[in-house]
Structure formats: structure tokens, C-alpha cells
Specification:
The protein has nine helices and three strands; from the N terminus they run H-E-H-H-E-E-H-H-H-H-H-H. By secondary structure, it is mainly alpha-helical. A three-stranded antiparallel sheet has the order 1-3-2. Helix 8 (182-197) runs antiparallel to helix 9.
Length: 225
């Protein structure tokens, strides 16, 4: 898909003094994570540069980093294509996600503040209110899980999440588009919040693992369908 159809790509606030190449890379990475770009989409330097109103040099730099991270591959002809994960890679990704999400929930049960628990509850309420809008549900779900990682108070775990989010971006269509998945996912979210609020690390670990296991089942349905 060409950039002209992607109206949500933005360079973002550069008031923090980021080098232009880094700012372009972060913009494209966020576009991948939020589903603006999806597996199979083609990106061209000139189109991205025009949309972000920058020269092609920082775009070329950002493209190189995306290729080195395995997020994109050279297209036949010009540009890059967002890479697709095969079934083995997806299963491996979810196995690692289960480990990290369980660890984050366990630590959040020990360290989350009452304000953070309230924020999780609000995000879950928003998730349920967005029923029928799979993209918005996916956005709120990402914020929900990022908030749990933040509440874990472990910078190394949070760093691992950032790497994981890059791979998750390659999954494409959200599992919340699978009929019958949103309601159980919401119930699983509520169980995770309850375990964290109860300061029960073992339960938090258990329900977080179940949540990711069920997400994998829905992911495989998408791939098989």
C-alpha cells in the first residue's frame, strides 16, 4: 500500500533534540506498531520523505535500521516490504511473550500503586467500550500491557517489551477481529487486574499466561483462515 493512503504517519515532536534519522525511525516503528503499516505493505523512500517533509537521507538511514531489525525486507524493484512472520516464528514469539507478560504481571502484583491499578481499570473499561472497533481495541490493549510492564518497576523487563513490540507489529490483523475473542479477552484483563489488586503474584502470573495462550489460539485461527 502506498503512503498516500496512510494519513496517520507523523514525524512527532522533536523538541527533545533527536537526530532526524532517529526521529524518522521512531515514527516508522510506531506506524508499524499501531497498524498504520501492515505485513506486505511496501514503503518507498521518496513517499515517506514527502509525507514526513524530510530529505531522503534520514529516511534511508531509518530504512536501514528497520531492515537490520528484521522488520522489513527489500522489495523486488524499489523500496521495502513489511515482513510477514511464518507459523514457527509466531509460535516462538508468543512463547516469549507469555514468559515476559507473566513476569510483568507477577512483579506488578508486588509493586503497582493504587493509581496504576485504577489506570488499568480505566483502560479495560475503554477496551470494552470500544467493542466492534478492532483497531481501537488493539490500541487500548497495547496500552494496557505497556502499563503492566511499567508497573513492574523493572527497566530490563520494559526494555525487553520494546523489542517484543517490534515483532508483534509483524503479526498484522489484530486478534480482536476474530469473532468471539473480544469478550473473553476483556474477562482475562479483568482477572489480571484483580490478581494485581489482590497482591497475588502467583495468580497474576497464571492469568497472564492464560491470556497470552488464548491470544495465540486466536492468532493461529487467523493464519489458518
Amino acid at each position: 500500500m502506498t503512503l498516500n493512503a496512510r494519513q496517520d504517519l507523523e514525524l512527532g515532536d522533536r523538541s527533545d533534540g533527536l537526530p532526524l534519522g532517529e526521529a524518522v525511525f521512531r515514527s516508522l516503528r510506531e506506524a508499524l506498531r499501531s497498524g498504520i503499516y501492515r505485513p506486505g505493505d511496501r514503503l518507498r523512500e521518496e513517499e515517506v520523505a514527502q509525507r514526513l517533509q524530510v530529505s531522503r537521507t534520514p529516511v534511508r538511514e531509518a530504512f536501514g535500521r528497520l531492515v537490520s531489525k528484521g522488520l522489513m525486507v527489500p522489495a523486488q524493484g524499489r523500496g521495502l516490504i513489511v515482513r510477514r512472520l511464518d507459523t514457527t516464528e509466531v509460535i516462538e514469539l508468543y512463547a516469549m511473550r507469555e514468559i515476559l507478560e507473566a513476569a510483568a504481571a507477577r512483579l506488578a502484583a508486588q509493586h503497582a500503586s493504587s493509581v496504576e491499578i485504577e489506570a488499568l481499570t480505566d483502560l479495560e473499561a475503554g477496551f470494552e467500550a470500544a467493542s466492534g472497533d478492532a483497531r481501537e481495541m488493539a490500541r487500548l490493549n497495547r496500552l494496557f500491557h505497556e502499563s503492566i510492564f511499567a508497573a513492574s518497576r523493572n527497566r530490563y523487563l520494559d526494555s525487553a517489551l520494546q523489542e517484543l513490540q517490534d515483532a508483534i507489529a509483524l503479526l498484522g490483523r489484530t486478534t480482536f477481529s476474530v469473532p468471539g475473542r473480544p469478550d473473553p479477552a476483556a474477562a482475562e484483563h479483568r482477572d489480571i487486574i484483580a490478581a494485581i489488586a489482590a497482591r497475588d503474584p502467583d495468580r497474576a502470573d497464571e492469568v497472564a499466561r492464560l491470556h497470552i495462550h488464548e491470544a495465540l489460539r486466536s492468532r493461529l485461527k487467523i493464519m489458518q483462515g
